[in-house]
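Students often ask what a holo structure prediction actually looks like on paper. The answer is less mysterious than it sounds. You provide the chain, you provide the ligand, and the output is a string of discrete structure tokens encoding the 3D arrangement of the protein together with zinc ion.
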Amino acid sequence: MFLTNLFNLKKTCMHEKITPDMEYGYCPDCGKLIHNDWYITRCSCCGVKMKAICRNGVIEPQNHYCTNCGSSEYIVEQISKINFIDINFAVLQRHEIDENVKYSNTTQCWQEKTVEKPKLLVQYL
Ligand SMILES: [Zn+2]
Ligand SMILES: [Zn+2]
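The corresponding structure tokens follow.
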């Protein structure tokens, strides 16, 4: 019981009421301004779109290898406006926006993206 309470205290708002069809809006649960950002992944070799997922806070393709050319290299691309074709490939990230300092407060996922390199090295071991 004690542990459960501790967990609840630490729990941060997921802003679930900001639906994916909104570009941005104020979260009714915590009052923060939330921006919906969409990302897709592409094969960096042939440029074909790969379905993006968010794994441990990192945006990466669902498949490890490109179905078109077999490459494992990929790039992450932000799309400004979601459309019904890209929505099949895209992953949604919700960013909290500090209205005093624009875009200073990003989600964990985006910050952790910079540590992609060490993770790739680990896979060779
Ligand atoms: Zn919220
Ligand atoms: Zn490819």
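The CA atoms of residues 33 and 99 lie 8 Å apart.
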